[in-house]
Write a structure and sequence with these properties.
This protein is mainly β and 227 residues long. The protein has one helix at 2-18, and strands at residues 34-37, 41-43, 48-50, 55-58, 76-78, 82-89, 97-99, 103-110, 118-120, 126-130, 133-144, 148-153, 156-166, 176-181, 184-193. It is 7% helix and 39% strand. The protein has a 15-stranded parallel beta sheet that branches. InterPro entries: Pectate_lyase_PlyH/PlyE-like, Pectin_lyas_fold, Pectin_lyase_fold/virulence.
Length: 227
């Protein structure tokens, strides 16, 4: 009986994990349904939430074009160590996902980004973006305002301004790091905007480079087509 129960438990676990596809996908998935939230949905520290591939959005809309919003304008607010999986984020929100500490985003798709798709505010540690994708972002997709590292893997971006940006004029200056592994970008002005002149005071720091320098920004195995 013990071995039978263990086998059933294992099969259930395998079935659940199979529904989360974090491989690189370049076709946006169809939502399995729609859920409109009157207020931001909070995922508690260390907890996990599976959205069942439904489209999650805000009603009424909190999108205000490129005006900076706050936590209350997001669809999901993740406390430290929370995990969000299998979600389609709709167009009627200003901020998408806010991570207050480290977080993990598995197979999250943003259909039409308003101000930002996801914002990372951790003071240390690593947040993960595994699979998923975003499209139609006038400006930023992944906004890194906190410290630590944002690690992006198997991500697809289409018709966006910046796939990732490290904050240059946030109230608190942090040494921020980011990694990108097996991402595909189809139409973007910037793949990763990083703050090489760290600690510069004032408003937005001045632009110092437009290509990898091997130190502040290093790349390898980059393939381009259609240029």
């Amino acid at each position: 009986m013990y071995f039978k129960a263990l086998l059933v438990s294992s099969l259930v676990g395998l079935a659940a994990s199979a529904t989360t596809n974090t491989n690189l996908q370049t076709t946006f998935p169809a939502a399995s349904g729609t859920t409109n939230l009157a207020a931001v949905k909070t995922i508690a520290a260390g907890q996990s939430f599976d959205g069942g591939m439904k489209q999650w959005d805000r009603s009424p809309s909190t999108c205000n074009d490129q005006a900076e919003g706050g936590d209350a304008d997001a669809v999901f607010l993740l406390a430290d160590g929370a995990t969000l999986s299998n979600v389609v984020i709709g167009p009627n929100n200003g901020e998408g996902v806010h991570c207050l500490g480290t977080c993990t985003l598995n197979n999250i798709w943003w259909t039409d980004v308003c101000e930002d798709a996801a914002t990372f505010k951790q003071t240390s540690g690593t947040s993960y973006v595994n699979g998923g994708g975003a499209r139609n972002a006038e400006d930023k997709v992944l906004q890194h305002n906190g410290a630590g590292t944002v690690a992006v893997k198997n991500f697809f971006a289409q018709n966006v301004g910046k796939v990732y940006r490290s904050c240059g004029n946030c109230a608190t200056h942090y040494a921020r790091k980011s990694t990108f592994d097996n991402i595909r970008v189809n139409g973007a002005s910037v793949v990763a905007g990083v703050n090489g002149n760290f600690g510069e005071s004032g408003s937005e720091p001045s632009k110092t480079a437009s290509a990898p320098d091997g130190k502040v920004c290093a790349t390898s195995a980059v393939q381009t087509s259609g240029c």
